[in-house]
Structures are given as structure tokens and as C-alpha cells.
Amino acid sequence: MAWNLFRFCAALRVRVLGSVMILLVLAVVGFTYYAVVVTNYWPAVLAGGVNSYYAFAILIPFHLLLVMLLWSYFAAVLTNPGRVSSNWRSDVDEESGDPLVLTGLELSKPMLNLQQTASLVGSGIQKIRYCRKCNQLKPPRCHHCSACGRCILKMDHHCVWVVNCVGAFNYKFFLLFLFYTFLETSFVTIILLSNFITFFNEGEIPASPESLATTFLTFVLNLAFALSVLGLLVMHLSLVAANITTIEAYEKKTTPKWRYDLGRRKNFEQVFGIHKRFWLIPAYAEEDLRRMQTLHGLDYPSKPESDSQHY
């Protein structure tokens, strides 16, 4: 009873915080939209003349990047990061790649409890990853998320900004959200730079104090986001290049012989798919979803020379 109450309070806290974070993201987007479109460039479009063409040249990429940013964001928010099926069973040890020697009777059991699992490991059988909280076996690279209260396939981390875990099914969407956020905030910073400089000029100010203050705050806010997201994006791209999750890097599983590192190209394709035309949109080709087992979050190819080694 006490545990169920604790889980309910934790889930309620996550939902409340998640709602606040979504509103915060939308508020930043709305504030930026007001400063860029309503305050600065849409009046030039309405006025016509040469300046209207320049304004159109600014507004078109601004809206395209904004659409891709929001599409990627809500794809990361609404996509299930990967749930472990209750009847999942492994036939390969995650650490060594060796076949598990469980008998057919053991594999047919609906669930192994902790004592059974300990006895199997103690009897010389290969390692079995087991979640004490979910009371079920864990696939390779799967971890339990305390915030979500369940095991997540290829879990990278729990992100408060997307109000979701980042795992096998939405990692690409999360990376695209970072990518388009960096492009959009950098673009806004560049186009508002002249207004930012005007704010400190001692000469005549061409705009009202209210609009200039709004532009100034938007410039500072987007510059801060661009710099912070750039560092996060570079970090995650380096992890993708090595086929490592944030949790695996934290656990120091990364070695020169990391068994899942198949080379940058193949590592990248495990996250973004094979079809290039889908790399920059938060979606996968049907063929990729059908043929690439890594996108299902359960099976991961490894280096042949490392299949019989322990790390």
C-alpha cells in the first residue's frame, strides 16, 4: 500500500513538472515568434517596398525551422521510448555475446523470480539481466527509469524538457529537436544582432522602447539556448558516433573494444535509419522499421572479434 502511494505521488510529480516544462517551451517559442514576426519583420511585409523582400527572406526559413523544431519536439514527447514486452526472453548473454544455456522449460516460464534468477547465475549459467522493480528480464542496453517507473529499451536518459525518457524509439527525435533548436535559436540570434546593437546606441532609437526591450530579451534568450544546446548536441553526436548511450558512458562501459561500436556510419544508421531522405525528419522509412532490428530496441549487432570476450 505504501509503495503504491509512493509511486502515485512520484507519477503525479512527474506529470505536473512535465506540464510546466511543455508550457515553458511553448512560452519561449511564442515569445520569440512575437519578437521576430509581429514586432520586427511582419510590419515590413505589410509596408511593402524593398524591405518586404528582405523580410520574406527572413520569415520563410524562420517558419520552416520552427515547424521542424515543434514537429521533432512533440515526436520526442509523444513517442513511447520503448517498453519491454512481458514475454521477452533472451538467448544471448549481453556482456559476452555467448548463447544462454537455459532449458526449454526455463524459457517457457512466464516470469523468473529473484531466487530462480540467482540460482541460475550461481549454477554457472550465463548472466541474466533482471529488474527487481519491474520483476522481469531486461533486454540488452535496457535500464529502469525511476521517473517513468518502468524499464526503457536502450535508455539514454530521462529528459525533463521532453517530459519523457529518451530511448530506442525516440532518440532520433530528441536529437533532431536539439538540432533544429540550435539552428532556430542561432538564426534568431543572427537576425536580431543589429537590434541588439541598437539597444546600446546613444543615437535615435527607430523603434518603440517596448518593442526594443522585447527584441533585446529575445536575443539574449536565444543566444543562451543556442550555446547550451550546442554543447548538448555535440555530446550526443559523439555518443552516436561511438554507439554509446549516456548511461553506458556514465557507467564507463566505453572501452577501445566496445562491442557495439561498428564504425561511425553503421552506428549513425542504427539511430537514424538507412534512407537518407528520412535523416532530417522525425520519422522512419517503412523499410527501415521492417528490416532494421536495432530500431526495435531489442537486438544489437556487435563486433565478431568481441563476441567471445568480456568487458
Short description:
The protein has 311 residues and is mainly alpha-helical. The chain is 55% helix and 5% strand.
Keywords:
mainly alpha, two-stranded antiparallel sheet, disordered N terminus, disordered C terminus
Describe the 3D structure.
It is a single chain. The strands form 3 sheets. This protein has a two-stranded antiparallel sheet with strand order 1-2. Strands 3-4 form a two-stranded antiparallel sheet. A two-stranded antiparallel ribbon has the order 5-6. It contains 10 helices and 6 strands, in the order ααααββββββαααααα. Helix 1 (2-47) crosses helix 7 (209-242) and helix 5 (171-191) runs antiparallel to helix 7 (209-242). Mean pLDDT is 80; it is low at 1-6, 93-126 and 306-311. The chain is 55% helix and 5% strand. It has 311 residues and is mainly α. It has helices spanning 2-47, 50-78, 104-108, 114-122, 171-191, 193-199, 209-242, 246-250, 264-272, 286-291, and strands at 130-131, 136-137, 143-145, 150-152, 157-159, 164-166.
